[in-house]
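Support reply, case 0932

Customer input (verbatim):
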Amino acid sequence: EMAAQIRFLQKQGVDLASAVASGGLLTNVGNIFQSIFLLIVAVWLSPDSLKFGKIPTSSIESLVLIVIVVAVLVAGIVLGIPKVRKLVLPPLISAMTTIRDALRSPKRVFLLLGGNMVNSLMYAWILLICIQAFGGSINYWTLLALNIFIGTIASLVPIPGGGTAVASVGMSGALTAVGVPTEVAVAAVLANQLAANFIPAVPGWFATRDLMNDSYL
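Our regenerated output:
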């Protein structure tokens, strides 16, 4: 998805550094901020007691530490080797300029955060419909909080396809913990994966093919 966004921007005449900044970094940063905001709102509005503190965070802390160490090493290499510095710094400065200009525009910030928020709200709504379809019930804000939190944890799994498995198992367990029958929770989560991830891939394939035929990708 990120590669398609970057390629689309390049086809529109945007340089690679700016395309990466807009289609990758800026989008991910916006998604992080809106997820934190929505999680706080959802927990506040949820009538259920949500205790995320029982979830082990040691693996997350280790991953964050590894990311920090790698970032420091990369920065040291870039700044310490003149040839690498001359190669990397100009595109990096261009990317930072693109991000700065975007953040200075209230309209762009609103579209970035608003679009990601609508996306998160719709994903939770689809899962709610799946739960109701199998005869279960849950408060929407409780479901939204669980969906954001578990989805974030699952995205940290550095294995292709591992995030989907972790999200499915984790969401099934979380739904059961807040009172949804186990059989309903498992069936609803599997139906949600089908409705939200696999079915959209069919029209997405046709859309991607048209974009490539029209030289947009």
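We compared this against your earlier run and they match. Two observations from our side: The first helix runs from residue 2 to 11. The chain has a mean pLDDT of 76. Please reopen the case if you see a mismatch on your end.
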